[in-house]
Amino acid sequence: MKRWKLLLLSCSWAFVVQAQNTFPVNGVADNRSGYYALTNATIVTQPGTTLTGATLVIKDGRVVAVGNGVTVPKEAVVIDCKGKYIYPSFVDAYSDYGVQQPQRQQGQFNFFAAAQLTSNTKGAFGWNQAIKADANAGSIFTVDEAKARQLRESGFGVVSTHIKDGIVRGTGAVVTLASERDNKVIVKEKATAHYSFSKGTSTQSYPSSLMGSIALLRQTYYDAAWYKSAPKTEGVNMSLQAFNGIQGLPQIFDIIERGADHTTKWNALRADRIGDEFGVQYILKASGYEYQRIQDMKATNAAFILHLNFPQAMDVEDPNDARFVSLADMKHWEMAPSQPAAFEKAGIPFCISATELRDTKQFLAQLRKAIEYGLSEQKALEAITTAPAAMLQVSNEVGSIAVGKWANFLVTNGPLFAEKTTILQNWVQGNKYAVKEDVWNNYDGLYNLTVNGNAVQKPTNSKLKTAPPIYLGKTPLVLSGLAMAK
After folding, report:
1. Which residues lie below 8 Å from residue 51, measured CB to CB, with a gap of 6+?
2. Which CATH code fits 90-101+119-397?
3. How many Å apart are CA 234 and CA 175, to the nearest integer?
4. Which of 101, 186, 197, 320 is deepest in the core (most CB within 10 A)?
5. In the CATH scheme, what is the homologous superfamily, with its name and number, of domain 33-89+399-442?
6. pLDDT by residue (tens digit) across 102-155?
């Protein structure tokens, strides 16, 4: 009897160990693993490495094999990708995906009210509300399926997200765009530290200028260095504690203060000088005007995050309107798309982000435009895959297709940067997300139709869901003997 009890107890413990889940499941749990083999594909595992007629095997969201001559497991679902291309999903190093952004309180400004000189934030924090070093995007992140879908359809599989508020903005998180629980999609909770020249939603009077923002940030560095050896009488300053705690992360600086113009490029040099003063090398989020001083940008030794929000063409057809358009604006409209090419030519490390775009669906179109203006295709692919992954220090997880990494990849019907190429599927963490699967097979062609014994040749278009009926008088004809013309 005791042996039976011990046997039942051991079995129950084994069941608990294998079935352990920290989140309860409402209903029947589906623990099936995704096991797929994509065969006969042209696979670009990373920029500069292309495998023809190759196989990609993924299981449990990870890549388990990739290459030529890979044995297809019997248990895997086989997907024939003949004529298809596979690329790593894109990585965006700068976004606010899944993070609710603070909003400044709306209210009528009282010019005669006393200035707010100290922070009104509750707790043992620093004296200025614009220093939000304790902010942690990972702690408030939540999956946003609507926005994730938009980004996936543009080719993205991973983004770095943070709270865009304050001069010191705390830490950002690297997350995937899978439709999973929040805890399942976080690749790295505290991945980056963020800074800017804008005080954001702070209601304090100071700082009220770019000079004040620079002074406050410099003072914060000095205060934080002193706080490391502060006497006990100083007490606890959680803002400075958090500031010191994030210095080992990649430091990303958004140089845009209140919108970009031709003067914003100088903010890159201002931010770099602050970094040089305190031994910090920032990753600079560009404004779009840096090509005008490309050698100065190179001298910073910084890596840059470039956007593709190129200016739209101005209406100068009417002379009355044209006189309000400056030559500088016209020149910027012409030259802005060449910024990525200028960075490549100068040898400045950079990645490309969808940030600042009015519509993320335009990302690939804008990237192709940058290629037209001189950016090489290999550098373009690097700037949206391996380069941002390296900047975010997550190259061991994402950015390329390799054994052990997350199965984040695109399936396209042609070379990625070709004008007519379409993204068919975007796989994120081994989950397939359809983008335009209806064009997976192309049925365009010339078909032979036999109508009442008479052969008729009629072109068909695969974009039509149903063929229009053919009438003889008022009677619709029944078509038979449909075959592709040889």
Report:
1. 42, 43, 44, 45, 66, 67, 68
2. 3.20.20.140
3. 38
4. 197
5. Urease, subunit C, domain 1 (2.30.40.10)
6. 877 666 555 666 677 777 788 889 899 999 999 999 999 999 999 999 999 999
